[in-house]
Amino acid sequence: MANIGVIGTGYVGLTTAVCFAELGHKVIGFDIDVSKIEVLSSGKSTIYEEGMSELIVKNLANNNLTFKGNIEAITNCEFIFLCVPTPQDADGSADLSYVIKASKDLSPLLKKDAVLITKSTVPVNAWKDVVKALDRSDVAVVSNPEFLREGSAIVDFFNPDRIVVGCTSSQKAKQVSDLYKQPDIQTIITDNSSAELIKYASNSFLAIKLSYVNEIAALCESVGANAKDVLFGMGQDSRIGSRFLEPGPGWGGSCFPKDVRALRVTAEDNAINMSLLSAALDSNEKTHRRIVDKVEKELGNSLIGKTICIWGLAFKANTDDYRESPSIAVIERLIGRGASVVAFDPVITNVDNKKIKIAKSIEESCKSADAILVLTEWEQFKSVNPDSVKDLVKNKVVIDSRNILDKKQWTKSGFNFIGNGWQ
Ligand code: UDX
What we know:
- The protein has 423 residues and is α/β, with parallel strands linked by helices.
- 41% of the residues lie in helices and 14% in strands.
- It contains 16 helices and 14 strands.
- The chain has helices at 11-22, 34-41, 52-61, 97-106, 126-134, 153-158, 170-179, 192-223, 227-235, 256-269, 275-298, 326-336, 362-366, 379-382, 386-389, 407-412; strands at 3-7, 26-30, 65-68, 79-82, 115-118, 140-143, 163-166, 187-190, 307-311, 340-344, 356-358, 371-374, 397-400, 416-418.
- A six-stranded parallel sheet has the order 3-2-1-4-5-6, sandwiched between helices. A six-stranded parallel sheet has the order 11-10-9-12-13-14.
- β9, α12 (326-336) and β10 (340-344) form a beta-alpha-beta unit.
- It is globular, with a radius of gyration of 23 Å.
- The structure holds uridine-5'-diphosphate-xylopyranose (UDX).
- Uridine-5'-diphosphate-xylopyranose (UDX) is lined by residues 146-150, 203, 210, 244-246, 248, 251-256, 315-316, 326.
């Protein structure tokens, strides 16, 4: 069992701390936000994530996990994971200031021969800045990017597709990969720069894939093909793979948009024109616009004075995160074209944009709406009986950007049903 310190208890840090504790390690989670430390120490989760509270309670009770607001608490740890944010800077690059500050703060505190691991998503070669800021020749700096999806972060931690560990010392890299206790999982031991780039290259590839999927859906609509069949057919080719092929209102979240922009800056800084990254970002905006165009078309080519009922604010289901959510992007465009919006989300009850009215229930969101627009694929929406809402809406129009509703059922209830990429 190892003594592990985790710096930063945000999404990645909390999952890392809790899951390593669950594996039997002694883990200390540190955060500068003492109010967070109080909540976590009382056994409550600070993020909406399936199974998180239960694992926190269990591992606090068996003393595998503690949360501290003083960084000195990690002095006895052999392995320290940096999980601080790397937000987007004004030019789209990743802001490394938290990573550098944490490395400097840790420098006098780390025990001899400790291992400092960057799990935060950092641009290629950021590890060199960490080495410099740390200024400790006895401490190895290891790059171990995370690939956790919000909403299934715990499952992903214990069942990763791969573990990536980069270091100048393969022995230190092996020590870090051993912490995961997953001998059957593919482990890629490489150099730091390659490990850092694997993360950006993967997320950006997935974003490009989704932009392509959304463009294929648009084309299917125009030519009268069925995107569900086309994408299923594509996915049967093992070189393409059947996952990440669902069209939607666009891709978003705390990672994809930020990572694609940051990779583009890295490429530009190195005189490499990665035009696909810009194309994917532009295409994503076009997808937002296409969804708005569809609503407008169904409502007599004008949104002025219309009320749109929105189902879903989160950037995807099973999370309360709406950072760079395509729902918000679509809603802002609807409002910009003169519509009012009443939104319902199973977990988000408050958003920054006060022009977005939030309903407390599905029924309330439907009242006097001119159209229902599904933007997040929450399970709850799939089970709505259209008969239960048909008398509430003004116009029986439902636009399902996630293709989750049953067209037959909605049509039977008198709705004009519009899917994404098929008639
Ligand atoms: C992502 C990466 O998947 C993860 O490996 C990384 O470490 C963090 O960033 P996450 O941001 O949680 O995870 O979201 P993800 O599940 O990847 O979805 C990203 C966006 O793509 C969402 O807006 C989602 O709705 C959209 N999406 C995903 C689709 O529109 N269609 C799909 O088929 C899959």
